[in-house]
Design brief:
Layout (H helix, E strand, L loop, with lengths): L7 E5 L3 H13 L3 E5 L2 H10 L4 E4 L8 H9 L9 E5 L4 H10 L3 E4 L4 H13 L17
Parallel strand pairs: 1-2, 1-3, 3-4, 4-5
């Protein structure tokens, strides 16, 4: 199946089963999704073929998602790519750093398919930023 013309989304997460589940949900609604197992691989993928949006975990080996986003902000080729963090790490300090770095959204694991698709759609339509953080009270399915 070709992804020509489809909006390309890069998923960076060391939990490959979770990343592939996200990919399946995105592909099912017409996005082209690529998975990278860590931030180093993700950085290589995004520079080789920049996506429209990145979904990124925070805690990963070699480099965490916040450090990757910091590096992205310092490179003109990647600075404008919106990043949605999807993480189980939801302490105030981590979330504040994500916001300071310019995260488009922050989803706390576990997430639902509806949360995923709503966040992706909102970030892509708004030029990379959610207008407001919605109230997520759905039971988790992913």
């Amino acid at each position: 199946m070709s992804d020509q013309g489809a909006t390309r989304i890069l998923i960076i997460d060391d939990d490959i089963e979770f990343a592939n589940l996200l990919r399946l949900h995105l592909v099912a609604v017409g996005y082209a999704a690529v998975v990278a197992e860590d931030a180093v691989e993700g950085g290589k993928v995004l520079l080789a073929r920049p996506p429209a949006l990145i979904l990124c975990d925070i805690n990963m080996p070699y480099m965490n998602g916040l450090d990757l986003m910091s590096l992205m902000q310092s490179d003109a080729r990647s600075a404008s790519i919106p990043v949605v963090f999807i993480s189980g790490r939801t302490d105030g300090e981590t979330m504040a750093k994500a916001v300071k770095l310019g995260a488009a959204d922050f989803l706390a694991k576990p997430i639902t398919r509806e949360q995923l698709l709503e966040s992706v759609k909102a970030c892509l339509q708004s030029g990379g930023r959610r207008a407001a953080i919605p109230d997520y009270r759905f039971p988790p399915v992913v």
